[in-house]
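Cross-posting from the modeling subforum.

Setting up a comparison between two proteins and wanted a second pair of eyes on the formatting. Protein 1 (sequence, then structure tokens):
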Amino acid sequence: MGSKTNRLYFIDAIRAWAILMMLQGHFIDGLLDNTFRDSSNFLYTLWSYFRGITAPIFFTASGFIFTYLLIKTDATNSANPRVKKGIKRGFQLILIGYLLRMNLLGVLTGEIYPSFYIVDVLHCIGFSILGIIGIYQISKQKSNYLFPSILVGITIILFLFEPIYISFDYTILPNFIANYFTKANGSIFTILPWFGYATFGGFIALLFTKYKNHKNLYPTAITLSLFIGLGLMFLSSPFFVTLSYITGISLFIEIFYNNYLFIRLGDVLVAFGFFMLLRRYMNNNTFLIIGQSTLSIYIIHFMILYGSFTGLGLYSHFHHSLSPYVVVFGAILFMLTTTFLALKYEKNKNIIFKHISISYRWTRITLNPWTTFAYSLLKMYLIKSRLFLLKLFRLVKN
């Protein structure tokens, strides 16, 4: 951590890497022909493994950044401004998540398609932010150790008991709510267990804040991240087998058979350690700006690839139809185009919103006489209808 700023640039670098991985991952996964999805192919297996790391890293980094800023601005005897901003941000992400799955043609015809209710990464990150705020509000004045204990405790509980709650029947709930807990209706992510990665990121942020002035912060953090991360990757499965053998609890053997949560957590820690190790070389301004513009990149990529609002995207035209050479070239072009448009938007968004505001005011002023006239007509019509009904009522009564 530099002396001139408290910003942790390695986190921006992690987010930049994760969002770029997401872009190529979504493009290749959505457009590659099924005949080339060969798990015996080393390159495809390697790509598939690294694609699986993207979401856990992104959730963890998001929880880290929000919690780091949340406790950084905490002020004694006054409300933390980050709480209000976080609540606004959480609901904003949820709203954007739904808007991106809205089809304007369906709205104009009075129909909302089932895909509108599918829960994706933005919904889960939004609720994760709200969840971290709720935990913070409950625990901030209780004890210095309660907040981090709850965060890491939630991660452990959600990861340990995933085989149990994943098998629950959520059909009793409306799909709108059930989609946050089950993938049965097409949801890409669910709040459980993904909230666990966000809370773990918050836990790491608390450790960084507590020891931010320690001279051995990074050597210790790098060593622990790599050591614990590699341990989770290679030793967590044998550990759960041993626990099952010793205790006779079947839950542990179920975790062993599908131990992706703890292994992916190990991947996250190794990635954090790697980026911290190379932090001095990750000061490229463009790369850091990409890490700070992930929401814009996500929105633009969704519109181009999946056809938000119109339904006309690359996915609808080239779904599982491209060869490896074409899809790799297309993925690179897609990454460059999406990132370029997002950075242009970030650079000019104040001007864009200013023009939108001016256009809105102009439209309102221009249409004001017509809306006033229409309101007068409607009012006159309602008054005449009321008089007619009153006369009709008297006639019927007589």
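Protein 2 (same layout):
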Amino acid sequence: MAERVIGLLLGTEEDWPAAFEALVSRVGEIDGHTLRTDRIINEPFDLRYKPRYHVVIDRLAWWYDLPRAWLKKVSLMDDVYLLNNPFTFQAMEKHSAYCALMRLGLKVPETWMVPHKLPAPMHRREYMAAKLEHMASRYNASFDLERVAERVGYPLYMKPFDGGQWVGVTRIRDAAELHDQYDASGERLMHLQASVEGFEVFARSLSIGAETMVMSFQPDAPMHERYAVAHDFLTPEVGWEVVTISRLVNAFFRWEFNSCESLIRDGEVYPIDYANASPDVAITSLHYYFPWAMEALVKWCVFCCTVGRRMAIDQDKRRYFDVGDDPERSYEQKLREYRVLVDDYFDVDRYEAFCAESLPAMRELTVEYFGGADFDRLLVDEVGKTFPAHEHEAMVERHRGLVGAWVADQAGRSER
């Protein structure tokens, strides 16, 4: 019996790792492979050592250099399968993703980059300060910020090019707000992006491997209320488009655990954010959708472990650009071509067949776990960490009810 080890490279999270580990332990053995999980420790490593991991879920290296270096080693030298590709981390700063998707013909709102308000961060290195000052005096052009904003159009959003969790994102209505927020941006490099006014739906799609869940998102609500439990809130055609765009981003950049945000107005999909190195999978925010996320993550990791799927380090961008650059193809034709490329990259047919043949009881195991006492203890503990004491009881009942609703929905589907 061969052992397959799924490594977890973690920061501060405890909720989803505990649920993931519990589900993997319930899966047990698959197709002659014994599955187990292991939380990875950051420590010195010999570049020639052989890791014991077959798949690694990374939630740390996007901000911590040591594990990023380790991930690059185990992918280049040892063929360890990684979620996500460490060589496209720089694209996680959103700018690269904007550029790629514009070239692929998607409806990214008008977007400009503007220089830092203050000198670039390298000025902290004293030996570089004089060079930077000299370079800036010769080659940094003065510019009219208001004129750039007028080209984008008000209202607009000022966004850090490398931001996350909406930090530093501001809505700009006029020139006065523009200057105030630009002055406040300091050393951060910013985009100005046109607002999609009058949208009907804000959709956030979480993609894990070959599966995607599109959720109705309420950006102005508290975090625990942002994911609304809603079904069929998009037409089948728009839903297919949102899923295709989400998976296109992931296939292009070799990301397999990522979330995307899109605005839908008059039946058109405008992708606005789709580079999240560590997407939200907390119980206290996903609630109803948390069991699906854990099930999908287990299934994809088990699939990669047991069928010998190889990680693609190279991006193979040209196949996508050949479609995007073709003036003879309509937007709809390009989407259909992209979906073929995407489904091929994620090996969708093979994955679905594997799940049907080797993991037929996965949904039953997931329902059993999330309807049981072990998960309930985890839920109570996580709510206790997240909310103030006077809200604990109400929040436990709220999240218990939402997860229970998912469990009940699955039971109802099985009966039908």
